[in-house]
Amino acid sequence: MASLPVRCQSGQAVWTYVGPLICFHLVEKHQPDRVLRQFNMLQTPPAISYTDQRLHQIDLRGKHDQDWRRIHAEHIGVWNSRYDFRVEAPTTSEPTVSENYFVWYRSITRRFITQEGAFYHCMYDFVDEVQNSPWNTI
Question: What domain of life does the UniProt record list for this protein's source (predicted)?
Fold first, then answer.
């Protein structure tokens, strides 16, 4: 980060803002806490994120005269306080993830798409274990 030009570092406070980004009728949550490694920060398991399902039901059909400031006042309020909603984590060079990150990651990730992929992975682990076994005399 220090090697970046000053103009690239000037928006750093906004990079780490966790909250809604608003463009008229669209509201999307910005979640840099899920990509801390991009900012040379220690990645930890992210907090559970909730999305207001009502936001997904908004479209512009027949709503050209809507007052979006009123409709999204709550989200605009969070944006106006964006410096209070920043993710902070220790900067690091190695390792880039916390000890419990991969435990969390494996619990929410599908590791294999096919049974064949899982089979090859298990066989590879088995062969590796046999080859590295202290009882292996081959």
Answer: Eukaryota
Whole-number Å distance between alpha carbons of 38 and 72: 30
Domain extents for the chain? 6-98
Q: Which two tokens stand for residue 129?
A: 């274990």
Answer whether 42's CB lies under 8 Å from 97's CB.
Answer: yes
Token pair belonging to 11:
């928006």
- Dig out the tokens for 115 from the structure: 């049974």
CA angle 91, 95, 101 (to 5 degrees): 95
Q: Which tokens is 73 given?
A: 């006042």
Residues in the chain: 138
> 32 preceded by cis ω (within 30°)?
no
What does the pLDDT profile of the chain (138 residues) look like in tens digits? 667 788 877 777 788 899 998 887 888 888 999 988 888 889 999 888 777 777 777 777 777 788 888 988 999 999 999 999 998 888 887 778 888 998 898 888 888 888 888 888 888 888 888 888 887 665
